[in-house]
Fold:
Amino acid sequence: MNHLIAAMRTFLKVVDVQGFGRAAEQLHLSPAQVTRHVNDLESHLGVRLLQRSTRRIALTDVGSRYADGCRALLSDLERIESRATEDSCRMSGDLHVVVLASLMSPELAALFADYQERHTDVSLHVTLTESDVDLLGGGFDVGILADRMITSLSVVSRTLVHAPLVAVASPAYLMNVSTPQRPADLAQHRTIAHAARGKILRWIDGSGANQSVRLDACLTVNSALLQRQMALAGAGIALLPEYTIANDVKFGTLTQVLGEYRIENDDVTINLVYQDREFLPGKVRAFVDLAVSHFNLPLIRSAPQHASRLQRDASGGHQMLSA
Structure:
């Protein structure tokens, strides 16, 4: 198709300047290339478009009508291409963002408000979820999601939050029980677990010693948000990403336990993800750039990640959000 369009443009230039040599000069092609384009066009159509002599060229009747059609077609093509470029850059329409529900925070609310203030013609649609997400299949332009939730075959990703799991409970719960001193003590406590996490957790203390502990939870949920609410209600000890309970610990509504230990290889990573890096619509690019500015993210470095072929930020930039 591209060769046919190029041949049409060459043919019209020959007609306009009345010569193969002059057309070659203006198109920065060799005379042989110009001749081949016109010959290919005539062979494709099975008709003679130009009558040639050593001194002049002339359009045949078919060639004259074909030249008019080519001009109309190429003019329409230029308008279509221009419109597509303008639409891509235009800051209007709908922007669909999917967000891990337990991540919602004043920082994210400020990001959304800032975007709306800057781009008033864009309608922002935010969907909260705790489920796996296929950006393309779900009709989302951008995601702010845990890496385990991303099922799209190929996306671009930047790390927003990288946080360890911490054990927390309400002061009311801890008033009536012995505070656990080591991970094995959790067996004597009511625990609130996330369904996506394994039961065997490897804990490491400050000296580097480690122990594996099986967590038999009395309550298992599929939402970190509900885990937090149950912990606040005094239902037991919950293992939660640090960013979800930072303010709770700060203001004393939750208390961290087993603070001398950390859980190995069970950190939570939240990513800013989107479909394509090279040809992003203007409204999507503006949101990505604003998020980068809000959270001071590092540059993307592409690297494949297991079956999802997730292009991740290999530099591992971290920015903590509070709940």
Q: What stands out?
A: The chain has ten helices and 15 strands. Confidence is low (pLDDT under 50) at residues 297-323. The longest strand covers residues 93-100. The first helix runs from residue 2 to 17.
